[in-house]
Design goal:
Layout lengths: L6 H33 L3 H27 L10 H17 L7 H33 L3 H35 L4 H26 L14 H9 L2 H22 L1 H8 L4 E5 L2 E4 H27 L1 H18 L8 H37 L4 H29 L10 H11 L1 H14 L6 H16 L1
Antiparallel strand pairs: 1-2
Helix pairs in contact: 1-4, 1-5, 1-6, 2-4, 2-13, 3-4, 3-6, 4-12, 4-13, 5-6, 5-10, 5-12, 8-12, 8-13, 8-15, 9-14, 10-11, 10-12, 11-12, 11-15, 12-13, 12-16
């Protein structure tokens, strides 16, 4: 088996998460405030919608993983979905940010339908993409490298969309387009870029790791084996808490700047304007990338588990300091954003590399390989964390008395500050707690890798 992964292939793999992350960051940073301040539904209704639709969406992930494991094509098991789903993915993204001339009830129904379709399309392309990491190479170090490329491009895609999104909305709006239409046109531009990136990934990557020749497809056995995979369950807990940390903190960021910092234009170039919140979010993505770059050298020295744990502990402590920043302390807020984002950036390539290790551990333990199920179940937990974080964000806004497009009450502002600092810090702390119990260290994985390599040659 040729285990060599070329630079072109690593870059190609990275483009896939650049595309997914462009949409993920739009959902995280802008969808909530679009629903409340532009589309016209309440924060409580949006929070409930996120929970209801994402429960179904979460169930879709293992289904998609099972389908991927059983797909047979000339392109492999997982790559073809990057080709088949790219265009529907972009089209539904445009529909998601389209505001129909409906009643409040009609708009809510439209939001339920389009958001459900968007999450199904995201699952259909992202689960196969994530699973691709487990079959491109069997080498643990190469997987960490691929995961680092993936996350570098992911945060690069996030940085690109943050550089484009708000400025494009303001550009279209300043050009005489209604604000609702400006959001729609912005998604047309971003959707086109995402399609191009997915096609790069499809064209430039290859699948190499195959299931054992004697393995028969058995969903019952695959699920049974997953239930015995203790390292995967630990990663499940850590992943959920990490996503709660990120989604609450990111989901309230635009509200924090609009209603507490009283967001203003930081840069104005003709009809193009850039706000302080956009600079804040962009700074976070830049330091996320720096964290991703440092993940491999740090983990090579002290191990994946310790690197993950210390990074989350650092993020937990630093997050709390946001609460004590006054609205005029923008410089300190930016410094804290840089430090917390650096810590958060470190853990994501490690998490996905550890999921691949969990798939190897399952094969080593049971003699069966179900890469798609392991990664889709992992993706499911990511969605679960995102679901809980997104719903919690909207419900807390409603609990603290948030009303769109008016000056907020002091207790509402205080609640937003808690959501920006203390609550994410708790999520990061719990993530570090879970990873403390993870036992697949680098020495153990090297032994497992050698055993599996010997089995595959038999």
């Amino acid at each position: 088996m040729n285990e060599q992964v070329s630079l072109r292939e690593k870059i190609g793999y990275g483009f896939g998460d650049a595309a997914s992350s462009m949409f993920w960051k739009i959902f995280t940073f802008y969808l909530a405030i679009f629903y409340t301040d532009v589309f016209g539904i309440s924060a409580a209704a949006a929070g409930t919608m996120f929970l209801v639709t994402r429960i179904w969406d979460t169930a879709n992930d293992p289904i998609m993983g099972i389908i991927g494991d059983r797909t047979k094509s000339r392109w492999g098991k997982f790559r073809p979905y990057l080709l088949w789903i790219a265009f529907p993915f972009a089209i539904i993204g445009v529909l998601l940010f389209t505001t129909p001339d409906f009643s409040t009830t009609g708009k809510l129904i439209y939001a339920y339908i389009t958001y459900t379709l968007m999450m199904m399309a995201y699952t259909a392309i992202n689960v196969p993409y994530a699973s691709l990491l487990g079959v491109m190479t069997a080498n643990g170090n190469d997987r960490t490298t691929l995961a680092s490329y993936r996350m570098t491009f992911a945060f690069g895609g996030s940085l690109l969309v943050l550089a484009l999104y708000q400025p494009l909305v303001s550009l279209f709006q300043n050009g005489g387009v209604k604000i609702e239409t400006s959001y729609q046109l912005t998604m047309v531009v971003i959707g086109a870029v995402a399609v191009l990136f997915f096609l790069f990934t499809f064209s430039w990557t290859r699948e190499r790791v195959k299931p054992p020749k004697q393995q028969q497809n058995s969903l019952k056995d695959d699920v049974k084996n997953l239930m015995k995979n203790i390292p995967w369950f630990i990663l499940l807990g850590a992943g959920v808490m990490t996503l709660i940390f990120n989604s609450v903190r990111d989901g309230v960021a635009v509200y924090y700047f609009k209603y507490y910092i009283l967001d203003e234009t930081a840069v104005a170039l003709s009809k193009l304007t850039i706000s302080y919140s956009t600079l804040y979010l962009g700074l976070g993505q830049a330091f996320n990338i720096l964290g991703v770059i440092m993940a491999k050298p740090i983990s090579a020295r002290i191990g994946k588990r310790k690197t993950f744990m210390f990074a989350m502990l650092g993020a937990a402590v630093l997050s709390v300091f946001f609460y004590f920043c006054n609205r005029d302390a923008v410089v300190y807020i930016y410094i804290l954003q840089a430090l917390v984002s650096f810590c958060a950036g470190i853990i994501f390539p490690l998490l996905w590399s550890m999921y691949a290790d969990a798939a190897d551990f399952s094969e080593w333990q049971t003699g069966r390989r179900a890469t798609g199920l392991v990664f889709s179940a992992s993706s499911m937990t990511q969605k679960l964390g995102w679901t809980l974080g997104g719903s919690i964000t909207m419900w807390l806004l409603a609990f603290y008395g948030f009303k769109a497009n008016i000056e907020q009450m002091p207790e509402t502002i205080n609640g937003i500050k808690y959501m920006f600092s203390i609550f994410p810090g708790i999520g990061a702390l719990l993530s570090a707690f879970f990873i403390y119990f993870y036992k697949l260290d680098d020495k153990t994985m090297l032994r497992i890798e050698k055993d599996l390599e010997a089995r595959r040659k038999e």
